[in-house]
Amino acid sequence: MSSDPNFDRWHAARNVKILVYPSQELETFGSTLLNYHLVSELPDAPSKIRIREGRLEAHQPRVIVPDFNEITVEGLGEDAREYLEFLRDNMRILRYGYRLKSDNFSEQIVTGSIDEIAGRVKAGVLASGDRFSAVLTGVDEPWEIALVELWRREVERSAEHNIRELASKNLLG
User: Fold this and answer.
1) pTM to 2 decimals?
2) Positive or negative: CA dihedral 146, 12, 156, 23
3) Which of 11, 22, 37, 64 has its CA 20 to 30 A from that of 91?
């Protein structure tokens, strides 16, 4: 780790590699438990690999509708007004929440190369058939950044599916 925590955070985020994504998107109408398996190399011992396992709980997305009635378009033309009307009718934002659950957290240190160990973890997860498991590699410290990055990517990956399901039930406001 460096003396600059901001650098460490960005470095950690940029070095996350997701080897196995959950095969199921985040639930639209309920919470989702994501099982993570994070493999990282100990910084001062290249043949020592830490495997952290636990769960992230992604909460049901909430629909947020911006209040376009508060926006005035003084001095702007008809195109701007029509575009604002379009946004008023079509723009919805989904808000997701999550929390790290420590009740199923475990970690172990094993010996081998990171590629070898990550490959074994990946094979085990794929063999389990768990649709809500992810395998990722990242830095050992600050390791929690990898979990935030996993959650961010899952939100991004699931949003279109969640929007379609909400729209099919006329729940977009």
Assistant:
1) 0.80
2) negative
3) 22
50, amino acid identity: R
Task: Give dist(CA 18, CA 82) in Å, integer.
Answer: 42
Q: 3-state class of 6 per DSSP?
A: helix
How many Å apart are CA 145 and CA 143, to the nearest integer? 5
pLDDT digits (tens, 9 = 90+) for 28-70: 998 889 999 999 999 999 899 999 999 988 888 888 777 767 7
Q: Which residues contact 172 (CB under 8 A, 6 or more apart)?
A: 63, 65, 92, 163, 166
- Percentage with pLDDT > 90 across the chain: 49
Measured CA angle at 84 (ends 81, 88), to 5 deg: 140
- Single out the residue of 108, 98, 141, 117 nearest to residue 11, CA to CA: 141
Q: Which residue type, as a one-letter code, is found at position 64?
A: I
Which residues on adjacent β-strands are paired with residue 133?
35
Domain containing 25 equals 5-61+96-168
Q: How many domains does the chain have?
A: 1
| Residue found under tokens 């993570």 | 36
In a domain, 11, yes or no: yes
Q: Are 140 and 124 in contact (CB under 8 A)?
A: no
| 81 falls within a domain | no
Closest CA to 120 of 16, 48, 19: 19
